């Protein structure tokens, strides 16, 4: 009996959901609300529109999609917008610091919330380290590789999974940015806006000069004019066909990672329920326009098969005899990297702060400086950890691990949106007939214009679970079917067909269920279609990552789970008891004062 009681208590702890009041009580807020719509949009653009705009378009155009890289960016933007609108609705529902961590804590439970929060921490840390590494590599190459030559000679590192030499420059760059973030949210936001404006000004110059100097003939180069020995496909606008456009979109998708940093500012934003959703949508729109415009002028100015994969824009302007614009673009890339570095580092202390405030991480992470109104200690610890990663590891290894946490958090947010949309929020429950046959009949024939109830909520969660499981099976089989032969290939094909049937049927049944009636500042359109498509696409991209990437990332996850097992579970229980006591005392004080 004692074991049964303790197991039930553990289960309740792992599934415990966080609650919060919509209105924040005066004097209770630790962080300062100073950010407006312009600040958040600049943060989203700066985090997303980084080095990729100067490199990614040329790489994809050269050997993957050709001039149709423009369509690849548009397809990637549509896929990203599915997750973006889910983030936007959730940000309106839960205007607190912590992004997908707090979203999953409110809707799913504590264990999943910790898992997502820790995953986000790892993803942002690795992403920031990769940006810092890319920035120092870029600057070092611009100056003739002085750091690389010196440290490879005097302090080489002969370890397979580490870099060739310790990158001290990247470490100090990260610490410098961490000091700016710790200095104050308004000051770091002002600097971010300045860097973003310089970045956008550079891109505007590129687009204007590109449309003036571009030639439409570069979008329709016949195969006969492609030099021998060059992989130029079949020529024309889409030399690698539809497969090239989709493969390019999968590559371009990672250029849109970063808008979720907006969602971590819930406690530092004025009117977060309206401002955060609007900022997410605006930043995605502006970034899509920028990527598509740069991709267009890039392939109009110079043949796609002759693009430089590492620095396409400076090489093009050098070849065209325009050194001034070449150096402008080079400086713009530096500002873009600085902006991305600031935007990537900004969410990390907010995630640590949110998890620490809930008792899942060490209390020191939730300490807020009285002068700066920022979690200074969490910021500096995040900066040191990120700096060490960037100085010790290879850029390729860092980049490979960046996307798993992002895709996983996107997936969880979409699942949470479905759970909330079909949640029973009616005071008076309207149960269906208890007959099993009658219940199954009503599952399929339920009116989606009715009110939610306990049965419709239960059915929706079963269907969401079935859809997600079928999506996992479908994605695993799809990513491996082409590598198999004979009976195994036939078996995987049959499983794919069965999983597609489950996906379609479960989504259609969700369409027939009533949704919760709520007054929200922003709602995801076409539910359940958009969240379901986002779940499928995010899972597919996750399955495309190689096993070594999953193993490296898994080490970080294991460390996090050990922290939760030996610290978080017990401490969150104690914090929960203390919060209940404090709430009772506060209510009694309010009664006495009234």
From TrEMBL:
Pfam families: AA_permease_2, AA_permease_C. Gene3D superfamilies: Amino acid/polyamine transporter I. One of its GO terms (biological process) is L-arginine import across plasma membrane. Keywords: Membrane, Transmembrane, Transmembrane helix. It is a multi-pass membrane protein. Residues 522-572 form the Cationic amino acid transporter C-terminal domain. GO terms for cellular component: plasma membrane. Signal peptide: none annotated. GO terms for molecular function: L-arginine transmembrane transporter activity; L-lysine transmembrane transporter activity; L-ornithine transmembrane transporter activity. It is found in: Membrane. It comes from the Eukaryota. This is Cationic amino acid transporter C-terminal domain-containing protein.
């Amino acid at each position: 009996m004692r074991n049964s009681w303790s197991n039930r208590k553990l289960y309740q702890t792992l599934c415990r959901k966080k609650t919060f009041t919509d209105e924040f009580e005066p004097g209770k807020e630790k962080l300062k609300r100073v950010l407006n719509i312009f600040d958040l949009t600049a943060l989203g653009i700066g985090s997303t529109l980084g080095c990729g705009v100067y490199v990614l378009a040329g790489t994809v155009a050269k050997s993957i999609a050709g001039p149709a890289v423009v369509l690849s960016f548009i397809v990637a933007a549509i896929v990203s917008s599915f997750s973006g609108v889910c983030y936007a609705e959730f940000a309106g529902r839960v205007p607190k610091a912590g992004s997908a961590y707090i979203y999953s804590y409110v809707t799913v439970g504590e264990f999943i919330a910790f898992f997502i929060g820790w995953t986000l921490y790892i993803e942002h840390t690795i992403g920031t380290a990769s940006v810092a590494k890319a920035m120092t590599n870029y600057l070092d190459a611009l100056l003739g590789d002085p750091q690389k030559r010196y440290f490879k000679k005097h302090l080489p590192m002969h370890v397979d999974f580490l870099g060739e030499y310790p990158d001290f420059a990247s470490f100090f760059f990260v610490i410098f940015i961490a000091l700016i973030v710790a200095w104050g949210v308004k000051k770091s936001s002002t600097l971010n806006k300045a860097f973003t404006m310089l970045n956008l000004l550079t891109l505007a110059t590129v687009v204007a000069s590109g449309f003036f100097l571009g030639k439409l003939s570069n979008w329709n180069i016949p195969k006969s004019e492609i030099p021998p020995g060059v992989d130029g496909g079949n020529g024309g606008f889409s030399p690698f066909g539809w497969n090239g456009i989709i493969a390019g979109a999968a590559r371009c998708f990672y250029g849109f990672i970063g808008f979720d940093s907006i969602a971590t500012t819930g406690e530092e934003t004025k009117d977060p329920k309206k401002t955060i959703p609007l900022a997410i949508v605006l930043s995605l729109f502006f970034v899509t326009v920028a990527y598509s415009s740069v991709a267009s002028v890039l392939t109009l100015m110079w043949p796609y098969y002759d693009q430089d994969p590492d620095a396409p824009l400076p090489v093009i302007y050098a070849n065209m005899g325009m050194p001034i614009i070449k150096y402008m673009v080079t400086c713009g890339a530096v500002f873009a990297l600085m902006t991305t570095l600031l935007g990537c580092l900004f969410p990390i202390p907010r995630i640590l702060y949110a998890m620490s405030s809930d008792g899942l991480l060490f209390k020191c992470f939730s300490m807020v400086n009285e002068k700066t109104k920022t979690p200074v200690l969490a910021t500096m610890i995040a900066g040191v950890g990120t700096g060490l990663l960037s100085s010790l590891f290879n850029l390729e290894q860092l980049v490979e691990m960046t996307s798993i946490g992002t895709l996983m958090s996107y997936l969880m947010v979409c699942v949470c949106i479905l759970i909330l949309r079909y949640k029973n929020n009616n005071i008076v429950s309207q149960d269906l007939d208890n007959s099993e046959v009658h219940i199954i009949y009503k599952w399929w024939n339920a009116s989606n214009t009715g009110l939610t109830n306990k049965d419709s909520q239960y059915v929706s969660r079963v269907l969401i679970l079935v859809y997600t499981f079928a999506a996992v099976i479908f994605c695993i089989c799809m990513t491996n079917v082409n590598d198999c032969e004979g009976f195994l290939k036939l078996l995987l094909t049959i499983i794919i067909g069965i999983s597609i049937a489950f996906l379609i049927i479960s989504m259609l049944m969700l369409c027939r269920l009533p949704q919760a009636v709520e007054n929200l500042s922003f709602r995801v359109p076409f539910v359940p279609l958009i969240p379901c498509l986002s779940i499928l696409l995010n899972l597919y991209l996750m399955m495309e990552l190689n096993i070594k990437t999953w193993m490296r990332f898994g080490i970080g996850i294991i460390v996090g789970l050990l922290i939760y097992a030996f610290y978080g579970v017990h401490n969150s229980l104690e914090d929960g008891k203390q919060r209940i006591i404090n709430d009772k005392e506060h209510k009694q004080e309010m009664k006495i004062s009234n």
